[in-house]
Design a protein that fits this description.
Largest sheet: 6 strands, antiparallel
Low-confidence stretches: 149-160
Distance between the termini: 54 Å
Structural class: alpha+beta
Oligomer: single chain
Number of helices: 7
Order of helices and strands: HHHEEEEHEEHEHEEEH
Strand content: 25-35%
Shape: elongated
Number of strands: 10
Radius of gyration: 22 Å
Helix content: 25-40%
Strand order of the largest sheet: 4-5-6-9-8-7
């Protein structure tokens, strides 16, 4: 069996990774330009781009258009708690923008409403300092959104809505162009997405939410409480 021989791309990425890990390249430092790196490693510029793409995918560096590649400053992990609208911590700040739209496509399917049903969309961005940490789009039928309560420590819809069931789906994938721009991340960096729908006692979907956060700096925690029957059966 032929052993796997590291490619030039892998070798260069390993060397830069070591420099970052040992502190030779410090957080916030700008890497040499791609032509200079190509000259240093005696390879072509496309090979350098492939090596840098590996480091971007690992979240070790980030590329700023027109400025170059920089070593990422490590971000602390933030936690999404099941049933919430956005991650919350005392040092996180959330901005909320409200828009009136019509139900179409995937959103109409999630809310189980006829096409063109009036909705209120809450576009929420959570920041740590000036760095965006998560983005969420929350959709509520317009007749319910009239009483929605907004607060930076809560989420659209408030806590008084008659919600008896929440369904959440977690997926890891590459970001959409819109998500990459809003989160200021590389399009090759994986995001953790949570799709949540909330139903009331009549079985009506009262809210649909789509949340995205970088997967290398976020966690999702879900807590299950046993029902009365489960506790009795023990």
């Amino acid at each position: 069996m032929t052993p796997n021989v590291p490619t030039l791309r892998d070798t260069i990425a390993k060397d830069l990774r070591t420099q970052i890990a040992t502190g030779r390249l410090k957080p916030g430092a700008r890497l040499p330009s791609e032509p200079k790196l190509a000259t240093h490693y005696k390879v072509s510029t496309p090979t350098i781009r492939q090596a840098l793409a590996l480091l971007q995918a690992e979240g070790l560096i980030e590329k700023t258009h027109g400025k170059g590649n920089f070593v990422r400053t490590p971000l602390r992990r933030i936690t999404y708690t099941g049933g919430a609208g956005v991650p919350f911590a005392p040092d996180l700040r959330t901005t909320i923008r409200t828009t009136s739209i019509r139900a179409r496509g995937h959103i109409r399917t999630l809310l189980r409403v006829p096409s063109n049903t009036p909705l209120t969309e809450f576009h929420c961005t959570t920041y740590e300092g000036e760095t965006p940490r998560s983005v969420a789009r929350i959709y509520i039928p317009h007749d319910l959104a009239r009483t929605a309560q907004l607060a930076s420590s809560s989420w659209p819809g408030g806590r008084d809505t008659d919600r008896t069931e929440t369904q959440e789906t977690v997926t890891a994938r590459l970001p959409t162009p819109e998500e990459a721009t809003a989160l200021r991340i590389s399009p090759t960096r994986t995001v953790l997405t949570i799709t949540r729908i909330a139903l009331n006692s009549a079985g009506r979907v009262v809210e649909a939410a789509l949340l995205s956060l970088p997967s290398d700096a976020g966690d999702a925690v879900f807590t299950t409480h046993p029902t009365l029957k489960e506790e009795t059966d023990r």
